[in-house]
Amino acid sequence: MTTTPGLGHIAPLTPLARELHDRGHDLRWVGGHGGIDEVVQLGIDVVFAGISEAERQRELMRRYPEVPEVPAPERQEFAFPKVFGELAAPEMLQPVRSIVEKWTPDVILHDAAELAAPLVAAAAGIPSVCHGFGQVVPEAAVRAAGAVMAPRWRAADLEADTYAGSYRGMYVDIYPPSLRSADMAHVPRVQRCRPLDAERASGDTVYVTFGTLFNRREDRFRTAVVAAAKVAREVFVTVGHEQNPSHLGPVPDNVTVKSFVAQAEVLPRCAAVICHGGSGTVLGALAHGLPVVCLPQGADQFVNAANVARRGAGEAIDAADATEPALCAAIDHVLWSTGPRRAATTLADEIASMPSRLEVVRAIEDFATGRWS
């Protein structure tokens, strides 16, 4: 199993790793720090490799200082091939290749942004499985990453793959079909997978989080917290592993601020979620039947926010419009109007009906032995 650094890329694969581990499979994990603690606790051998999120971001800005000028909704397509093809993949190639040469795995499972693994798998004649972290990455973005990776495929005496090898094998899709807005015609072999098992939420807390990477705009974050505190009886806030709760400044008496708490401990006692629109947070909220107010900032967040709004399971608010009155109105709407909660409950039922991790593990076993089609 290989992942690019970051909780948003590691966490979606962790439940599947647990299921594989419980079924007696021998696992190795190659990836960066940041969210991998649970993998280590399972007793899985981890090889730490790759460039960190912070290093990646610094190098991206050094090479492409125009990034801030790219319209926010277009940044995923602009940045994906540069971040994960140009910067991240080269640092992962040798560590992944070394493990494969020494160990000869039956299958390589990689997250959809880790592009070294499919190349190494193809060169070794090993099947590979690509695991999504949200809605499928836009076709144009993965195609551009394929162009970036093409010289490395040719250097390995391989024909360059249009999509950097991402879809050469099975693609594990954790995104609910009715929430999806992207075309998947270019992905030939899809295995759906329930993103998480979740109980239906039954509390009155409003949870505010901007994830682990997009939580550094304290002005925007604080506005969301203050707005939630004016509408909700109780507000729970997480600011991320690397942030001190005190950085948020004084907060109303009905607000509790922590650095990090696992979503599974928070969401069951909530009534709504205010977030950046990251895939992990959105899918977690919807799996618990919670409506969402999204303030997207980058990556796939604009797509997630638009999908949530389209399905009526919450609201999407542009950064320029995220004033305190607008946020108060949006939070009030998702808390007290029946439509958002009903739509979120419908999506929770859909998520619960998706194939379980055990079913997906069996499909991977069949795929690795040539029995899956």
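The record above closes out task 2.4. Task 2.5 opens with a second protein, given below.
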Amino acid sequence: MARPLRYAIRSLNGVVRPVDELLAPPPWSDAPPLFLLGSARSGTTLGYQILAQAFHVTFLPRAVNLAPGLTHTCFRMFSQRLREPPGNLQSNRGRTKGLLGPAEAIGFWTPWVDEQGPRVNALARDEIALANAVHRLQGHLRAPLLTKCLYLVHATDLLARAFPNARFIHLSRSPVPAIASLYTIRRGISPAWWSVRPPGAERVSSLPLLDQCVWQHFAVEALVREALAAIGPARSRILVYEQLCSNPQAEMETICQWVTPAGWQAREDWQPPALSPSEQVEPELEQRIRTSPEFRHA
């Protein structure tokens, strides 16, 4: 989206937001939110979709990304449809199908996460305001928030403080196929597209694109591991992409045992999808990835 148009939309959302806030329901906080974290092309969107189908949750639809100033209006208009996420698991670079599918909805988080300059930086804004915003959002469906927004990797400490009982899942994937997918996307769309730009990206900005992608993957993974180590094992879990694809039912049962005591509810009618991990990497590309200096130094 062109920058002038993006600024115009943000300005318009700022105008309508105070009116939209009048439609917010009473806050609901009987169960903690859950945040999915991980590097680009690691299966975070797939995990997001499956969790949204397996549990009764509040998720942010794509419509909120387009008009965050009308978030509560959207939930008032489509509350019934938002209780049942779409049954398909299709997505394109993290974008799910339809305006009401689970989405990153970065527009909802922009009061606390800044996309300007080096892509994203966590802003130390009012934690109480953040908690109130999420609790009011949860009030529409009276269900905990489930969300995946890759940019939030920079704000994990802020989220952990705002929601002392929040849960975090690290969606992890084998590095070679994840890097290969990231490289294919960046090469095909724009080498300047980073998804998430970790601190220190300036060091690798002059390197060949493949080396940038190798560094990017491991740098984001390190960010997630460091953030979750500070939060502690009781509030975080690792969900491995390959295991999720091989046996989604077993993985959801494990997560169910973890979040049910905190107030989460599983959907009784959920049926595990048939999945197969996308792991094939051309031998020549795999060799280039493994011999990258950034891979050896990771």
